[in-house]
Amino acid sequence: MKTRSIKKEEIQDGTYPRQWWIIDGEGQTLGRLATRIATVLRGKHKPIFTPHVDTGDFVIVVNAEKIALTGNKVKDKIYYHHTGYPGGLKSARAEELLAKKPTDLVYKAVKGMMPKNALNRISLQKLKIYAGPEHPHQAQQPQPLEI
């Protein structure tokens, strides 16, 4: 049996259509949720997975503000970013980030689990995160994704 390598054109012309999945983040553990999302964004859950082609699906995450962190991560975990200016290293604790921008908490966790290449940036554009239960993607008829 021959191994079939999918081409980018086959994904774009609709031969292998992309699906839309929705995940409710309420009560979910952040790391486990991010691992599952990264798998679906890359397309590793499909039999047509090809490492150098974006075969992944779209993922919608709702209720990002109700995500759970285990242990003392809420108080101890620190996220850093640099403004680009001298002395511009900024930090925020996980509880501050969860209160201000819960979508960034999920985004950073998923981004850390993706490969560090150009395909990563393309795949992350298919991730839609919302703090509350509402989202504007009803027309795509997303299917619930089990974690």
Structure description:
The chain is an alpha/beta fold. The protein has a domain at about 20-70 and about 100-145: Ribosomal Protein L13p, Chain: A (Alpha-Beta Complex), CATH 3.90.1180. It contains six helices and six strands. It has helices spanning about 10, 30-40, 75, 95-100, 100-110, 120-125; strands at about 20-25, 60, 80, 90-95, 125-130, 145. The strands form two sheets. Strands 5-2-1-6 form a four-stranded parallel beta sheet, covered by helices on one side. Strands 3-4 form a two-stranded antiparallel ribbon. Helix 4 (about 95-100) crosses helix 5. The longest helix is centred in the first third of the chain and has 13 residues, at about 30-40. The model has no long low-confidence stretch (mean pLDDT about 95).
CATH topology of one domain, which one? Answer: Ribosomal Protein L13p, Chain: A
Task: Describe the main β-sheet briefly.
Answer: 4 strands, parallel
Taken as a percent bin, the fraction of beta residues is 15-25%
Helix content: 25-40%
From the spread of the alpha carbons, the general shape counts as globular
List the helices and strands and how they pair.
Elements: H1 8-12, E1 20-24, H2 30-42, E2 58-62, H3 73-76, E3 78-82, E4 89-93, H4 94-100, H5 102-112, H6 118-124, E5 127-129, E6 143-144
Parallel strand pairs: 1-2, 1-6, 2-5
Antiparallel strand pairs: 3-4
